[in-house]
Specification:
This protein folds into two domains: about 110 residues, ProQ/FinO domain (Fertility Inhibition Protein O, Chain: A, Domain 1, Orthogonal Bundle); about 55 residues, SH3 type barrels (Roll). The protein is about 35% helix and about 20% strand. The strands form two sheets. Strands 3-8-4-5-6-7 form a six-stranded antiparallel beta sheet, with no helix packed on it. Helix 1 crosses helix 3. The chain is rod-shaped, with a radius of gyration of 47 Å.
Length: about 220
């Protein structure tokens, strides 16, 4: 006597049911809502079938009726069918509502699982990345070119030396059109006074810019 191989996977059980009862079970397309209590009919029909246990049959049937494509097919007024494809009752509004709620919950759980799986995959890739590809926790410091020290006769703060033949000017010495040197920042730049107003003067520098400086920042040639 040939030993019967029991079906242990839902997909194999459902394929077997689709083969045995093609009028009620389908593996593709839009399924037909099943008769309420159809498990009892299945158990009776397959009572002598050693390939499927009642426990596995119940699990596979639950898997089938909770699938997204089956839940979408449960619409109010749609006929329910028995194992032979005969219409036995119809889908009621409360059945459709229950199917919609189950579908929404199933999608939510699937989305959470997908997000968790994606996060785990990203963490795994990060942990498996070669050491050279991982960013160093230390801050990279760019190599700066060596600073040039001040040249002969130059101070560290002043690139251009104060000319020895210049002296600080006083307000009474300054007048429009006079050639002077104005301190701009740390440099002395030659220019010409274009306007004088008490303790401030406007000097047009040799580079064309006009600056307003205090008379204390203006230098003139030493008086011999």
């Amino acid at each position: 006597m040939t030993e019967v191989t029991k079906l242990t996977k839902n997909k194999d059980v459902l394929a077997y049911l689709a083969e045995k009862f093609p009028q009620s079970f389908s593996l593709q397309g839009e399924p037909q809502p099943l008769k309420i209590g159809i498990f009892d009919d299945l158990a009776a029909r397959l009572a002598e079938d050693d390939k499927v246990s009642k426990t596995r049959l119940r699990t596979a049937l639950r898997h089938y009726t909770n699938s997204w494509r089956y839940l979408r097919a449960v619409k109010t007024g749609t006929p329910r069918i028995d194992l032979d494809g005969n219409a036995v009752g119809t889908v009621e509004a409360e059945h459709q509502q229950h199917a919609e709620e189950t579908l929404a919950q199933s999608k939510s759980v699937a989305a959470e699982r997908a997000a968790k799986r994606k996060q785990e995959e990203a963490s795994k890739k990060a942990s498996e990345a070669p050491a050279s590809a991982k960013p160093s926790p230390r801050t990279t410091t760019r190599k700066q070119p060596p600073k040039r020290g001040p040249g002969p006769g130059k101070s560290a703060r002043q690139q251009k030396p104060a000319k020895p033949d210049l002296e600080p000017a006083t307000g009474s010495q300054l007048k429009v059109g006079q050639k002077v040197h104005a301190r701009v920042g740390n440099s002395l730049i030659s220019g010409e006074i274009v306007e004088s107003d008490r303790n401030d003067v406007q000097v047009q520098l040799q580079n064309g810019l006009t600056v307003k400086v205090n008379t204390e920042a203006v230098f003139i040639a030493k008086q011999e």
